Amino acid sequence: MKAALAPTSDIHVDPLFASLRQWLGDNSPTSVAVVTDPMTEKWCLSALNPHLPPGTQFLRLGQHGEKIKSLEHAHALWDSFEGMGMDRHGLVIALGGGTISDLTAFASSTYLRGVRFWLIPTTLLSMVDASIGGKTGINFRGLKNRIGTFAKPEGVSIHTDFLDTLDAREMANGWAEHIKHTLLASEDAKELPWEKTLESANAEAFEAAILRSISIKSNIVDQDALETKGTRKTLNFGHTSGHALESWAMAQSLEVKHGEAVAWGMRLALKMSEFSSDCPQVKPGDFDGISRSLATLIPLPCAVPDAEVLWEFMRSDKKNLGEQVNVVLLNGLGCPRVDVNVTLADFEQALAGLPED
Ligand SMILES: [Zn+2]
Question: What pTM was computed for the model?
Fold first, then answer.
């Protein structure tokens, strides 16, 4: 894949890890640790290895996936940091998808009140979303990202060749967040990314999509880095019900990917937008075409439980206060509305009204 893409703040499209090497040369960290899981160790580490300084330590997580975002795995990283004598002049590099970067960034940002870290996302999902925004987190009591910090990486290296290691389901997983960013920012339906299918998209199209997502998300995050003003809440579009579905699936030991849950959550939010008084510009059926495209491109791998079951998970989402459930809706493409209060009846109506695929 071609390089020639301009960096956005400290996020670099970095095929030969030149930005990372530059940083290592400029900062001479006392120690460097690379966190991998069995998948990224097998498929991605060889591309990074030649660019690492002598003496780099490799911290290998024995598992991969959502289950590594646990206190036990954070504890294991802290143990490793102790064992290798990591101090605040060291650097921890996360090589992996969103789960590795969330865990590694959490463990780094809390150890010694903050050790510097660098993210190298290896999935489309983490390239377009998880590695941008300065949030870290682990799951707790079955709830996603219940414990975490706001902490910015020293840099993010996007190496698009890693996309060649992903299967179609994993690419669709990342595409969901890209569609979300586009729905939040583009008023022109022609800019919507399903005009070209995932199969037909080429390397340049993916690079362009990644850059577009980074630019949209960075722009939103820069306006509201600590989530105090509300702007950042727009990124939660599709996530309240999506997270509920993920939490439910986790409890059932069903594997539902984040992007799959969010794509379904966006379909519900689009349907609720059609009948919400907070979205007067939207008429019933307006979003059915988008909803069908989402279902085709990013299908759910399981049946959905009853609305009441998911509602309990939605009420315990950390972004909801007490009995209220606040969601993000769209008053038209590119026009998000935050803090829209919905009821169980709204949720049931939307669930029943989803267009057939
Ligand atoms: Zn997400």
Answer: 0.87
> Was domain 11-165 assigned CATH 3.40.50.1980?
no
In the annotation, is 152 catalytic? no
CATH number for the segment(s) 168-353: 1.20.1090.10
Residue type, 247: S
Give the up-direction half-sphere exposure of residue 259: CA atoms within 13 A in the CB hemisphere: 27
Active site residue 227: yes
In the chain, what is the greatest distance between 2 CA atoms, to the nearest angstrom? 61
Render pLDDT for 185-214 as a digit per residue (tens, 0 to 9).
987 776 676 555 666 667 777 888 898 899
- Between the CA of 70 and the centroid of ligand 1 the distance, in Å, is 18
Ligand 1 centroid from CA 260, angstroms: 10
Q: Rounded to the nearest 5°, which phi and psi values hold at 327?
A: -130, 170
Q: Is the pLDDT of residue 104 over 90?
A: yes
Q: Tokens 């037909």 sit at which residue?
A: 200
What radius of gyration do the chain's Cα atoms show? 20
- Point out the catalytic residue in the list 12, 144, 180, 243: 243
Question: Distance (Å, rounded) from C-alpha 77 to C-alpha 70?
Answer: 11
The answer to whether the CB of 264 falls within 8 A of the CB of 244 is no
